Amino acid sequence: MLLLVVFVCLVRIIHALDNVGSYGKLEFGNVGYDGMRRVIGKVSNSTNENCQCSLTEPTWFSGPNAPLSERLVAHIRGPIKLYKFAFYNVPSFIIGSDNNTQNWTQQAIFDISPGDEYKDIFNVTFMGHRGEDSPCQGRELTFLKQDAVTHSNENPDPRGFVAEIGSGEEFIIFSNFPCPRSGVGQTCGVYRKGIRSNTGFEGQTKLFLFEFTMPPETNTTRKSMRHYDAPAIWVANDRLSRGTEFYHVDNNCSCLYNGCGAYQVFTVNETDTNYMYSALQTFQPTEDGSVVDDVFQGILSNGQFPRPLNTTVRGGVLFDSVGNVVTFLTNRTEFNYVITPEELEDLLYDIPAIGTERILQKGSLVAPNTTKSNIGSTFRAVNSFRLICFSLLTTFIQAFML
Ligand SMILES: *[C@@H]1O[C@H](CO)[C@@H](O)[C@H](O)[C@H]1NC(C)=O
Ligand SMILES: *[C@@H]1O[C@H](CO)[C@@H](O)[C@H](O)[C@H]1NC(C)=O
Ligand SMILES: *[C@@H]1O[C@H](CO)[C@@H](O)[C@H](O)[C@H]1NC(C)=O
Ligand SMILES: *[C@@H]1O[C@H](CO)[C@@H](O)[C@H](O)[C@H]1NC(C)=O
Ligand SMILES: *[C@@H]1O[C@H](CO)[C@@H](O)[C@H](O)[C@H]1NC(C)=O
Ligand SMILES: *[C@@H]1O[C@H](CO)[C@@H](O)[C@H](O)[C@H]1NC(C)=O
Ligand SMILES: *[C@@H]1O[C@H](CO)[C@@H](O)[C@H](O)[C@H]1NC(C)=O
Ligand SMILES: *[C@@H]1O[C@H](CO)[C@@H](O)[C@H](O)[C@H]1NC(C)=O
Ligand SMILES: *[C@@H]1O[C@H](CO)[C@@H](O)[C@H](O)[C@H]1NC(C)=O
Ligand SMILES: CC(=O)N[C@H]1CO[C@H](CO)[C@@H](O)[C@@H]1O
Asked: Is the CB of 219 under 6 A from ligand 6?
């Protein structure tokens, strides 16, 4: 028995050393849960010190991928250069099933790759937090000029968009579809008066593709910025960026802490910036039933990719119809108008899994209230595997010594 425990623990520890790959996939299973959440009901005094968001009564969400089954936008944080972005959806696709018959159709594309003959742009709008500042909502969401950094009153021709930004800069990719008016029951929910906004990309079963490079930051005057030399590509509920620029646990305008959901697709590891990983930012119970202490950090993937410092890579994230979520990186990724289910299966089948899949618990859960003390005391994540290994080993070693 002791040997078995030692063996299992060693295998896991050795495996942990072998969890980096420049092509491969990071997997989560059972993503999506039944939960409750409050959303913004009213924004008051947006531009003065009495600024606040009041919330609605809690409402339920449920189903595979929930709440990431809702409309999502792609956030791109520097230092990064984005060459391609594409979004696809399909009525149904289950990884490993023989019954996938429907084609994935491209709903949006941004392609400025130098190798391509013409710049293909469709159903994308670039926005950023570049407008008027607010104590509780940060800078308002606006269009961006073609430099991807400065505020613009009009939506410029996206064909001239230079999707290259440094540390501390971020742009967000929305669809071309403008939000209907602000209101609790409306498509875009309640948002700040006067802002420009479009909807995110819809579908329970979704695929986002990217081609990009994440060069090291060379401008040291940016050192004081948040996320210095920590690029990321992440997808988030479109309400997040309409609510606020910053994500604070005690700010009702920040829907991340109210449980609206986000997914870090490729986010650089800030303790070792040569690597990047994935993380699910929801309150879904993990393997042992615990909920993450810090939803901003999220439920981390069991493995990492090397950061593409001086290479250009292609990959993306797939949300299938039963809650399998896979981040993948492979140079065989194609940005065609149609992707057949066989093509997508082949793409994923051929690449190695990096680290083990994280299979979450389906359980239902009431989203925590938005005060820090509450999250801290109600939800506590433990690194269960190491704890169990450690305590079992200690127990057996003690038993053995006696
Ligand atoms: C907005 O601010 C005014 C004072 O400037 C205050 O009287 C009012 O109660 C505030 N509204 C809310 C909803 O906090
Ligand atoms: C957050 O929203 C709740 C519910 O509307 C409200 O009771 C509370 O005062 C708000 N908190 C802040 C800091 O705005
Ligand atoms: C495929 O569909 C058939 C008939 O609907 C069903 O019996 C089978 O279990 C399905 N296979 C998978 C892998 O979902
Ligand atoms: C899927 O796309 C392929 C390639 O474009 C096409 O040949 C096929 O007919 C499509 N299948 C369906 C069901 O639309
Ligand atoms: C653009 O994307 C949005 C969000 O997914 C979708 O509703 C809309 O149909 C797309 N537009 C076109 C013309 O495909
Ligand atoms: C470095 O970053 C600062 C702050 O964003 C900017 O003002 C400056 O132009 C940058 N320098 C170069 C050489 O890009
Ligand atoms: C980030 O890097 C540190 C240091 O190498 C490592 O301990 C940690 O596991 C990494 N994080 C993830 C999510 O892989
Ligand atoms: C690319 O980056 C890697 C990792 O930092 C480094 O080892 C390698 O020398 C770089 N190659 C070139 C051509 O700069
Ligand atoms: C694609 O990646 C594979 C595996 O890393 C590599 O062997 C191959 O040379 C790459 N092909 C291209 C065209 O870069
Ligand atoms: C103290 C407090 O505000 N508790 C609320 C926490 O959230 C649940 C539902 O999300 C409410 O029912 C509680 O009243």
From this structure: yes
